[in-house]
């Protein structure tokens, strides 16, 4: 897999991060709706969120992808990650399993689409502000990591 990422990275033309001229890339790609669909489609085709999100790293480093474009992409990828779980649920032969996974996918899609279509800019600012706060101090990062590990443990114990 490392070799494939290295080949992908070499195939991209050199571009400096400081450059803000994105005239070579169609403006359509910078629309949240399009990035949402791209994340959905690429993750659906590869059936791997690791590959889908891994593609973003060289694109971001080379300056093709900005942070505000990554958020809807990841939201779309999040929904597609459940396709293999849906197939596994169907193979179990229990309709309840399919219902649970399908319900989760539909709810995630509805929330994501509502955010993207109705409140994307405030949502993007909130995510960006949260990221800035998390990386501002080591204490904030430690607190964030503690929360994302402790809350699931608490929920499992309830």
Helix-strand layout with pairing:
Elements: H1 2-11, H2 32-46, H3 49-54, H4 56-61, H5 67-80, H6 83-92, H7 95-118, H8 120-136, H9 138-157
Report the β-strand fraction as a percent range: under 5%
Shape: globular
From N to C, what is the helix and strand string? HHHHHHHHH
- The count of DSSP E runs of length 2 or more, i.e. the number of strands, is 0
Q: Residue share in helices? A: over 70%
Report the structural category: mainly alpha
Low-confidence stretches: none
Number of separate structural domains: 2
Reported for the largest beta sheet, the result is: none
Q: Measured on Cα atoms, how large is the radius of gyration?
A: 18 Å
Mean pLDDT: 84
Number of helices: 9
Cα distance spanning the termini: 39 Å
Explain this structure.
There is one protein chain. The protein is mostly helical and 158 residues long. It folds into two domains: 2-118, no CATH class; 121-158, no CATH class. The chain has nine helices and no strands. The chain has helices spanning 2-11, 32-46, 49-54, 56-61, 67-80, 83-92, 95-118, 120-136, 138-157. Helix 6 (83-92) runs antiparallel to helix 7. The longest helix is centred in the C-terminal third of the chain and has 24 residues, at 95-118.
